[in-house]
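FORM 12-B: Structure-to-Sequence Request
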């Protein structure tokens, strides 16, 4: 690969990392939204870059920026989830163990666990990308597609049976079905979701109602957030991140299997008693999924995320073929983003932990709840507010009935199963 092109890929990756940091830290703004904006503005970017970069590589350089933003977002989005309870689809269930660690003064241990898990997951996923692409291009794709319904049924059964072991089978099934009904409504019904800031996605109020606000309300009765210490440089080691790679390979191909679902399935077979190890596995799965979306895109032509779909739209057939140049450029951008993402996650954690300890926890929780309500109205309007109310009604059931929140992942699994 031309050294000049490598330089542009790295520069593009650095720009993407800064954008991914912004989307990761600001609740309600997802990297998929950023990718959509870049797709719309691509003609202008193509014109601006045509004098600097060989026209043949312009589309790949822009896509490297999007890929870098997506990877860094997958690193950093854990930070606001754990400190202020604003959930993302990929790590929603990690809010509760993460917030518990914050209340123990170990918020930075949670952040470092997530950063290590993401870095390990991303590194291994990059190494596996080429052999996985080869296997998929040589017949494995059709086999995996046929297995999709079975995998989703098994995943659902594991989540529900896990609650059954706690004596909460009925409530587990009820929460799975109710959350799935809300998810199906948001995904399939023609509900307008336009607020003051334009058209948003109903996924945000749904996840906020199911996972975010209930945790914040329950934490509002706390005694305040203690001083956060940072005396555990490596609280988890490599193993949780490696476990995340295994389930991340599943989540990277099968729709509906998010990092939270994958980590929960992994915990059923290989239980983790320490919250930081569970957090690290969730983070690893999320980042592995983000990386392996490239393999899925290059093999099937379909993306498993908004960012992957946009990359496919811009690059077209630039990803076709085994180890195509576009594919290798995106892997280089991913590797650059993983290094930047690790450092930016630690920096973000320090910034956020310093902020929350200066503010009364109850006041902070109330302020965040108000912020989430405002974001819901401004991005999705009245329909989003109604979805938020319905999701909150379901989101309070697990704590009231003694069941885990993992079954609420039915909001993502059940809608995918319905068309089948």
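FORM 12-B RESPONSE
SEQUENCE OUT:
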């Amino acid at each position: 690969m031309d050294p000049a092109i490598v330089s542009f890929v790295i520069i593009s990756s650095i720009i993407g990392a800064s954008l991914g940091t912004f989307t990761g830290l600001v609740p309600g703004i997802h990297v998929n939204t950023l990718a959509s904006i870049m797709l719309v503005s691509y003609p202008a970017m193509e014109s601006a870059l045509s004098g600097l970069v060989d026209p043949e590589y312009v589309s790949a350089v822009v896509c490297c920026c999007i890929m870098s933003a997506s990877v860094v977002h997958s690193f950093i989005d854990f930070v606001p989830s754990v400190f202020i309870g604003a959930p993302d689809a990929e790590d929603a269930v990690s809010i509760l163990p993460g917030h518990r660690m914050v209340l123990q003064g170990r918020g930075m241990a949670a952040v470092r666990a997530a950063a290590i898990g993401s870095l390990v997951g991303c590194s291994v996923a990059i190494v596996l990308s080429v052999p996985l692409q080869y296997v998929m291009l040589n017949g494995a794709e059709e086999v995996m597609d046929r297995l999709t319904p079975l995998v989703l049924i098994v995943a659902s059964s594991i989540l529900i049976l896990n609650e059954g072991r706690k004596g909460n089978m009925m409530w587990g099934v009820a929460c799975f079905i109710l959350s799935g009904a809300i998810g199906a409504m948001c995904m399939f019904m023609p509900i307008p979701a336009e607020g003051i800031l334009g058209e948003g996605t109903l996924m945000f109020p749904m996840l906020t109602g199911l996972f975010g606000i209930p945790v914040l309300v329950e934490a509002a009765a706390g005694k305040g957030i203690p001083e956060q210490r940072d005396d555990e440089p490596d609280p988890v080691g490599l193993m949780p991140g490696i476990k995340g790679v295994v389930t991340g390979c599943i989540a990277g191909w099968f729709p509906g299997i998010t990092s939270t679902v994958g980590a929960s399935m992994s915990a059923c077979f290989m239980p983790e008693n320490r919250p930081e190890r569970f957090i690290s596995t969730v983070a690893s799965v999320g980042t592995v999924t983000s990386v392996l979306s490239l393999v899925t895109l290059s093999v099937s032509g379909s993306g498993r995320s908004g960012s992957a779909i946009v990359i496919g739209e811009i690059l077209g057939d630039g990803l076709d073929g085994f180890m195509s140049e576009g594919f290798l450029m995106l892997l280089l951008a991913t590797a650059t983003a993983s290094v930047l993402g690790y450092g930016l996650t630690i920096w973000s954690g320090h910034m956020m932990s310093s902020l929350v300890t200066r503010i009364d926890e109850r006041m902070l929780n109330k302020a965040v709840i108000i912020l989430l309500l405002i974001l819901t109205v401004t991005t999705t309007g009245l329909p989003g507010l109604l979805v938020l109310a319905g999701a909150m009604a379901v989101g309070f059931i697990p704590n009231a009935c003694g069941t885990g929140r993992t079954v609420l992942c039915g909001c993502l699994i059940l809608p995918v199963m319905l068309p089948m």
